[in-house]
Amino acid sequence: MLFILLGVLLLHLVILILLIVSTAASAWSAGVDKSTDLWYHCQTTSGSYQCKHASNEEWIQAVQALMILSCIFCFCALIAFLYQLFRMVKGGQFFFTAIFQILASVFVMCGAIIYTVMRPDEETITHFGYAYVLAWVAFPLCLISGLIYIVLRKTE
Amino acid sequence: MQLIQRLLYVAEQDSCRVFGKPGTTMLAVLVSIVSLGIVAQQCQAIVIYTGWERHALVGSDIRLSCSFFSWRWTSEDVTFSWTYRPDGSRDSISIFHYTGGEAYLDNKGPFKDRLEFVGNPGRRDGSILIKNLDFNDNGTFTCDAKNPPDIVGRPSSVRLLVFEKVPIQAGVITGAIIGVVLGLLVLVVVIYYLMRFLVARRVFSLNVSKHGKKKKEGSQQRQGPAPPADPSKVKAAASEKKKQESRKDKK
């Protein structure tokens, strides 16, 4: 029982870290010496870093909002999990935790889908960056974690 | 009467310089009445206000506002003049001049037939209207106003940016989406706790019981006429099941 609890908690922390890194790192798209989105468009030219703000278009702002919301909801799920762990009676369900975690996974999915569809085609941007990959990795993990919380019941 | 009027006129014109001068008590009283609220004032220059930056769409009209503040009354010889410096150029040309009660608009330069004076010099407003904007109108517009004898002042500039599509500011939509979702979340939580509170106060006729608390009463209509000798364990299990059902219904 303790192992299950620790495992679930560890998974939740890993998901939270993945979400925070994916939101904060400005590397959703990358090219040669260039990385851009969601916040900055940075270029390394001859050893120096030149950054300017990413474009202010509506879809980028929507992706920013969805990623931030998913981080907030994942964090609230963690708080709710710890609270319900110590305060709930035996046999209760981790209701709020599951709801928040599933909502967080839905937001990550929406954000990643919007970014995939609306990304502009440029020759200098050749591939997706690591932050984009982390977002897509975090989405199924978050969903699985939410489903685990639905079936999890407090027994001790 | 005339003496008082003359004293008032003198006081008004020289209110700048009267401060600190020993005068008769009557003059001091008049000056203090005239300059009510102007405490320890010094002679300040004329201050001109325009915007900082203006954004506009191609083909639209824009009103560039210019007003000034001066310690003196607005004289009849007040002048306004606007000059324009295109982006990337170092020369500026004069496009508008108002003097002697008449406005003179640009009739040879880039704003020919596109300018209109929409200001009110009596109210210290020297705004102009530029019609049918184009990308070539990007640049800096400088307004210079003079209110004789108050002529020392620094002209103020406003930058005009012409866009094909007005861009939305960074973070507006982000903040809006986050605010709406968090607001909805708070609303849902508040409604949930409100429902629980109201059920606990037996305002609603729902057979809902809290975790760990045994509520024997509840709506008899939902459960039907219950015999009074029911074991409480069975009732608690049944009410918990009903509570989960009602929760699933809500969500």
UniProtKB/TrEMBL annotation, chain A:
<protein>
    <submittedName>
        <fullName>Peripheral myelin protein 22a</fullName>
    </submittedName>
</protein>
<dbReference type="InterPro" id="IPR004032">
    <property type="entry name" value="PMP22_EMP_MP20"/>
</dbReference>
<dbReference type="GO" id="GO:0005886">
    <property type="term" value="C:plasma membrane"/>
</dbReference>
<dbReference type="Pfam" id="PF00822">
    <property type="entry name" value="PMP22_Claudin"/>
</dbReference>
<feature type="transmembrane region" description="Helical">
    <location>
        <begin position="95"/>
        <end position="118"/>
    </location>
</feature>
<dbReference type="InterPro" id="IPR050579">
    <property type="entry name" value="PMP-22/EMP/MP20-like"/>
</dbReference>
<keyword id="KW-0812">Transmembrane</keyword>
<keyword id="KW-0732">Signal</keyword>
<feature type="transmembrane region" description="Helical">
    <location>
        <begin position="130"/>
        <end position="152"/>
    </location>
</feature>
<comment type="similarity">
    <text>Belongs to the PMP-22/EMP/MP20 family.</text>
</comment>
<feature type="signal peptide">
    <location>
        <begin position="1"/>
        <end position="27"/>
    </location>
</feature>
<dbReference type="InterPro" id="IPR004031">
    <property type="entry name" value="PMP22/EMP/MP20/Claudin"/>
</dbReference>
<keyword id="KW-0472">Membrane</keyword>
<feature type="transmembrane region" description="Helical">
    <location>
        <begin position="62"/>
        <end position="83"/>
    </location>
</feature>
<keyword id="KW-1133">Transmembrane helix</keyword>
From TrEMBL, chain B:
<feature type="transmembrane region" description="Helical">
    <location>
        <begin position="168"/>
        <end position="194"/>
    </location>
</feature>
<feature type="domain" description="Ig-like">
    <location>
        <begin position="59"/>
        <end position="159"/>
    </location>
</feature>
<feature type="compositionally biased region" description="Basic and acidic residues">
    <location>
        <begin position="238"/>
        <end position="251"/>
    </location>
</feature>
<keyword id="KW-0812">Transmembrane</keyword>
<keyword id="KW-0393">Immunoglobulin domain</keyword>
<keyword id="KW-0472">Membrane</keyword>
<dbReference type="GO" id="GO:0042552">
    <property type="term" value="P:myelination"/>
</dbReference>
<dbReference type="Pfam" id="PF07686">
    <property type="entry name" value="V-set"/>
</dbReference>
<protein>
    <submittedName>
        <fullName>Myelin protein zero</fullName>
    </submittedName>
</protein>
<dbReference type="InterPro" id="IPR003599">
    <property type="entry name" value="Ig_sub"/>
</dbReference>
<keyword id="KW-1133">Transmembrane helix</keyword>
<keyword id="KW-0732">Signal</keyword>
<dbReference type="InterPro" id="IPR007110">
    <property type="entry name" value="Ig-like_dom"/>
</dbReference>
<dbReference type="GO" id="GO:0043209">
    <property type="term" value="C:myelin sheath"/>
</dbReference>
<dbReference type="InterPro" id="IPR000920">
    <property type="entry name" value="Myelin_P0-rel"/>
</dbReference>
<keyword id="KW-0325">Glycoprotein</keyword>
<dbReference type="GO" id="GO:0005886">
    <property type="term" value="C:plasma membrane"/>
</dbReference>
<feature type="region of interest" description="Disordered">
    <location>
        <begin position="210"/>
        <end position="251"/>
    </location>
</feature>
<dbReference type="GO" id="GO:0098742">
    <property type="term" value="P:cell-cell adhesion via plasma-membrane adhesion molecules"/>
</dbReference>
<dbReference type="InterPro" id="IPR036179">
    <property type="entry name" value="Ig-like_dom_sf"/>
</dbReference>
<dbReference type="InterPro" id="IPR013106">
    <property type="entry name" value="Ig_V-set"/>
</dbReference>
<dbReference type="InterPro" id="IPR013783">
    <property type="entry name" value="Ig-like_fold"/>
</dbReference>
